[in-house]
Amino acid sequence: MAQLPAGTRVAGVDCGTNSIRLLISEVEESSTGTSLTEITRSNTIVRLGQGVDETGELHPDAIARTRDALANYVAVMEAEGVSAVRMVATSATRDAANKDAFFDMTRELLGRIQPGACAEVITGEEEARLSFLGATIDAPADAKGPFCVVDLGGGSTEFIVGTRDGDILGAYSTRMGCVRLTERIMVTDPPTAMEIAQARAYVVSQIEEALVHVPLSGAEVLVGCAGTFTTISALTLGLDSYDPERIHMSKLDFDDVRTTTRTLTAESAATRAANPVMHPGRADVIGSGAVVVEEVLAAAERVAGINQLIVSEKDILDGIVAGLVSGLNSGLGPSRPQ
Asked: What region holds the Ppx/GppA phosphatase N-terminal domain (predicted)?
């Protein structure tokens, strides 16, 4: 396939239960080969999964919020000269009774960038591969792996164990996430001790199920990605504002992370929202996310003897862009530190 010329811009969109995100990157040539340079990255809380657990349908307001956010992203793509786009959507959209309204909306908007483009729900295997690729692409040279990547979302949390070369040794998607737990169990603000205990028991059961499918015992590095982990990193580091450069690849001792998570589960949403590193749309659900993080750390410590967490600002979104470009041009792959 013909090589993409330097200057070609591509976009990835990841639409999850809680947020929709955009990444635009440009193909660049150098003496060392072809690489990708980030142009812009955006994150918008749309809560697409609002009530879908209970009703089996995407709420009309949630679709409208997602449409507004995606329309803004498409306008940015047009302004930046994007020529190819791929959008991946949460599996909840596939199962919703009114899914056609969602997919028709994405086809209309994305078609302005690339005719025929539409949101797609990918297989669990591909989701694992893309998440792992994105989360580990900037792993420091001294982190040899194997890696266990934990991608904590609104409705699900993925566990992927793989090697530094990208070979996936095991992957599993659990039915736990910060939105799902908040809507189902931790409904009080702040959550009660009983709610936290019930959520913790559910999370532990989900992690135990994941351990049947994922060889966590063989992992040497734990990598957390997506908004709950990155926000917890910002809080643990004591940042005055959300700083992606300081958060990306930050190394945190488990005990320091636990201090942060205990604070989050005890606080009200209003107190959390007052912290400058907290996205307003995450304040009401991150307490549930903190419970998931605590139990992930406990499992990694018990099963693999790991006591440090690496937090990645990159995740499936970066994998989508890298995969999109490598799919268009078989000669281009993600650059990894040697």
From this structure: 32-320
Q: Which two tokens stand for residue 48?
A: 């697409």
Q: Which helix (H) or strand (E) holds 2?
A: none
User: Whose CA is closest to 284, among 176, 217, 218, 186?
Assistant: 186
Q: Any idea which residue has 């089996």 for tokens?
A: 56
Asked if residues 133 and 322 have their Cβ atoms less than 8 Å apart, the reply is yes
Q: What is the bridge-based pairing of β-strands 308-312 and 147-152? A: unpaired
CA atoms within 13 A on the CB side of 58: 29
Residues paired with residue 30 on neighbouring β-strands, in sequence order: 33
How far the first Cα of the chain sits from its last, in Å, is 27
Residue ranges of the alpha helices (H) in 41-150? 52-55, 60-80, 91-95, 99-110, 124-136
pTM of the model: 0.84
Instruction: Yes or no: say if 185 and 198 are a contact pair by the CB < 8 Å rule.
Output: yes
Tracing tokens 């959507």 back to the chain, one arrives at 89
Residue 33 DSSP one-character state: E
The b/e string for 313-337 (b: 16+ C-beta within 10 A; e otherwise) is: bbbbbbbbbbbbbbebbeebebeee
DSSP annotation string for 80-104: HTEEEEEEEE-HHHHH-TTHHHHHH
Cα→Cα distances 297→162, 175, 308, Å: 18, 18, 9
The β-bridge relationship of strands 9-15 and 82-89 is parallel
The mean pLDDT of 3-24, rounded to a whole number, is 88
The token pair at 299 is 């499992």
pLDDT for residue 185? 97
As given in the structure block, the two tokens for residue 148 are 């266990």
Alpha carbon distance 296, 294 (integer Å): 6
Residue range 58-89, pLDDT digits in tens: 999 999 999 999 999 999 999 999 999 999 99
Sheet containing strand 82-89, edge to edge, reads 33-45, 19-30, 9-15, 82-89
On the question of pLDDT at 334 being above 80, the answer is no
Query: Which tokens in the block code for residue 1?
Result: 């396939």
Note the pLDDT of residue 285.
96
What's the half-sphere exposure (Cβ side, CA atoms, 13 Å) at 249? 10
Asked whether 126 and 142 are in contact (CB, 8 A), the reply is: no
